[in-house]
Amino acid sequence: MISAADKLNTARLFSSGHFADVADRLADDVEFHIFEDGKHFVGKPEVQEFCSGIEAYFASVETNFREHGHLMSENRVAIYGYATFSRDGKLLNAVNSCDVYEFDDQGLIKTIYSYCNGQQQAMK
């Protein structure tokens, strides 16, 4: 089992878009719920495929993630914060988010619940 600090670090990395850094911390049967977009991914390959698309987007823009705080219990971590995405000095999107992670007995992420409200700007 991993420590509470390791669970917090894993959650922080995932929430800030460093998916590849924590791919080995995903359970094989992980579920990822993204409520704003009505998306639900099941299984490590499906979650990783979706996250690789997000990583590609993050690489194409300037990102600024600010964690406002976190909450923890034995097998859950919630990270809440704010992110902006810009290109050529123009704001593309600003997002308030809260990601809730549930860990299994081996310390792997078994469920992710993502709540976001974005203010998307014109994409130019």
TrEMBL record:
<feature type="domain" description="SnoaL-like">
    <location>
        <begin position="13"/>
        <end position="110"/>
    </location>
</feature>
<protein>
    <recommendedName>
        <fullName>SnoaL-like domain-containing protein</fullName>
    </recommendedName>
</protein>
<dbReference type="Pfam" id="PF12680">
    <property type="entry name" value="SnoaL_2"/>
</dbReference>
<dbReference type="InterPro" id="IPR037401">
    <property type="entry name" value="SnoaL-like"/>
</dbReference>
<dbReference type="InterPro" id="IPR032710">
    <property type="entry name" value="NTF2-like_dom_sf"/>
</dbReference>
